[in-house]
Amino acid sequence: MREKSNGSNSYNGHPSYNAREDYQRGGYRGSRGGRSEKLELANFNAMIGLVLFIGFLINYLMAKYLTQYFVNINEWVLLIGYFAIGFTGIAISNKSDNPWISFLGYLMVVAPVGVVLSICLKDQSSVSIQNAVLTTIGVTVIMVIASQIKPDIFLSIGRALFVALVAVLIIEIIMLLVGIARPTFWDFLVALLFCGYIGYDWAKAQKGPHNADEAVDACVDLYLDIVNLFLRILSIQSRRDD
Fold first, then answer.
1. For 227, phi and psi rounded to 5 degrees?
2. Which of these, 77, 163, 203, 230, has the minimum number of CB atoms within 10 Å of its CB?
3. Distance from C-alpha of 121 to C-alpha of 106, rounded to nearest angstrom
């Protein structure tokens, strides 16, 4: 489940980034203006962090207290509900300019992903989960810092990331139909893809208007990037432990 506000895991793709006009044009000048802009950007990034934290906290509580209930849900009901609720949430977040409505859309993405995460984590050891969480946090921080330092590099690879994402979708569908197990190197490759997406989505958010609605919209993208990265790292970690 993955769709962009300017384009479209499971998987819907990223378009290449289209630069917007600087929202600060005509704003304050000089050092005072610089401090004002940095403060606004800091608040914008803090809101992204807060919204992401709320999403992952909800997922944690779902996995801790509701896993047994989710396991008993019919597979077809689970599959249809996952896509119906998730894509509806993405559409609501993308189309709304109201941050609260966009936040509702974000929660509609978080909820079905949380159900799937709860089921996936059921048979994993606490050590594997903990290591995967810590590794995901570390990699995410590194990609955000890299994107902050060299945003143009990440913004320039949007189309390549989209093509790679489509290729991953096609190959994994073929693997599923043929019954081929994913090799470890494949999880590494897909993890690298979502590392690129984290950098791309962060850079894209920094270039856009720094308001509450844009912050929530950015969180939908980053949340899906991080979840996908976590699942691949967990898969690698589990195989190593086995």
1. -60, -45
2. 77
3. 22
> What does the block give as tokens for 21?
């006009």
* Backbone torsions φ then ψ of 46, nearest 5 degrees: -65, -35
CA distance 45 to 39: 10
Domain regions of the chain by residue span: 30-241
The long-range contacts involving 46-50, CB below 8 angstroms and separated by at least 24 positions, are: 47/212, 47/215, 47/216, 48/205, 48/215, 48/218, 48/219, 48/222
> Which distant-in-sequence residues (6+ apart) come within 8 Å of 33 by Cβ?
27
pLDDT digits (tens, 9 = 90+) for 108-132: 999 999 999 999 999 899 999 999 9
Q: How many residues does the chain have?
A: 242
Q: What is d(CA 147, CA 149) in angstroms, rounded to the nearest whole number? A: 5
The pLDDT tens digits of the residues spanning 40-77 come to: 889 999 999 999 999 999 999 999 999 999 999 998 99
Q: What's the Rg (C-alpha) of the chain?
A: 18
Q: Which of 188, 190, 155, 154 is nearest to 169 (CA)?
A: 190
pTM, 2 dp: 0.83
184-206 pLDDT, tens digit each: 899 999 999 999 999 999 999 99
